[in-house]
Design a protein that fits this description.
about 350 residues, alpha/beta, 10-stranded mixed β-sheet, 10 strands, about 15% strand
């Protein structure tokens, strides 16, 4: 069910970086999101990317140049967007290049372009995971949420996911494949049940639930009841789990405002947009005053050590256009609690 903090953040799996942050307040990032393109084949009704240049796209040479700059310290890159990453036909090759540089890679896609040829190319990069934003339980919902003109899109994406699962199994790949659903006020227990059933029938490893940014509808208790240990018989069918998992982001549903005034988690992650600009996180992507600098024109370490980045980090949460999601960051809160403990406790060596 819900990933615990250690599992979700992975920061504590990198004790060298954590120790550096603990001692100095800064470190080099562990993970990056890389946007190969802002172009998209869908027109999602709740798209969060309306503030970005929809035509921006990185060439393969630009992506490899960015990867070369990140390779000495980045442990994982998620190819995402902006737009639909597979709209850039060179994304699979960039993924292979990053893997060859000993960087773990992952892909976040809407699944529409997962043809057998592209699936084979992607799997060559040994991805750690591929997540498909399905966001629907039937063709009508898919057409409405994704802004497609065809009733066939939903079934086609499901067929593509089944092909991806089959190719993964044939290669005995360790890649984790999941489908994601963004919940909103109109959803209910039956919707969640139907999505879980769809996911299980596709043979994927997990179904993931997250709320739309604008939505305050909290589905934690509804989702949790699908856990066999908590099942009360309220829904259609208790599920046989085997290795199948249900994931959800507790902090994104609870929206508990943190006590931190500095977004500590921004030391461990970056977003590199399709224009080459570096942003602290996915929420600030495309907001000009949060860009640290541009990797197509400047060296990463110069950007990272710059006064501009320091100023953005220190003032981010005080900026009037800082997205409200930045205040609900479970990792930043955990790191804040560690800072408070470090500074105030006189008995650090005793449990």
């Amino acid at each position: 069910m819900d990933n615990d903090l250690l599992s979700r953040t992975k920061v504590f799996m990198h004790p060298d970086r954590f120790a550096e942050w603990f001692n100095t307040g800064t470190t080099l990032p562990i993970t990056a999101q890389l946007d190969p393109t802002n172009r998209c084949n869908y027109d999602c009704s709740q798209c969060a990317g309306l503030r970005i240049d929809r035509n921006a796209e990185l060439s393969l040479e630009q992506m490899t140049r960015i990867i070369d700059q990140l390779a000495p310290f980045i442990r994982g890159i998620e190819f995402t967007g902006g737009g639909e990453p597979l709209m850039n036909k060179q994304t699979p090759e960039a993924m292979v290049y990053a893997n060859d540089k000993k960087i773990s890679v992952a892909l976040d896609t809407n699944g529409h372009l997962l043809t057998p040829r592209i699936i084979d190319q992607i799997l060559l990069s040994n991805p750690v995971y591929i997540r498909i934003s399905l966001d629907a339980i039937n063709s009508a919902m898919h057409r409405l949420n994704k802004g497609t003109q065809s009733n066939e899109s939903f079934e086609m994406v499901k067929k593509n996911i089944a092909s991806l699962v089959a190719a993964k199994n044939q290669l005995t790949s360790g890649c984790t494949i999941g489908v994601a659903y963004l919940t909103d006020y109109s959803d209910d227990a039956n919707t969640i049940s139907d999505f879980i059933t769809t996911a299980k029938n596709l043979g994927v490893d997990y179904a993931q639930f997250r709320p739309y940014h604008h939505s305050n509808a909290n589905f934690i208790h509804t989702i949790e009841e699908f856990d066999p240990l908590l099942y009360t018989g309220n829904f259609k069918t208790p599920f046989s789990w085997d290795k199948f998992k249900i994931l959800f982001s507790r902090d994104k549903y609870e929206k508990i405002r943190g006590t931190y005034t500095i977004p500590h988690a921004d030391e461990f992650r970056i977003v590199v947009s399709a224009t080459g600009d570096i942003y602290p996180d996915c929420f600030t992507r495309g907001i000009k005053n949060f860009s640290y600098g541009n990797l197509l024109t400047d060296d990463f370490k110069d950007i990272w050590r710059s006064y501009r980045r320091k100023q953005i980090t220190e003032s981010k949460l005080q900026q009037p256009n800082c997205p409200k999601q930045c205040y609900y960051d479970a990792l930043s809160q955990a790191l804040e609690d560690i800072n408070v403990q470090k500074n105030n406790d006189k008995h650090n060596n005793f449990v």
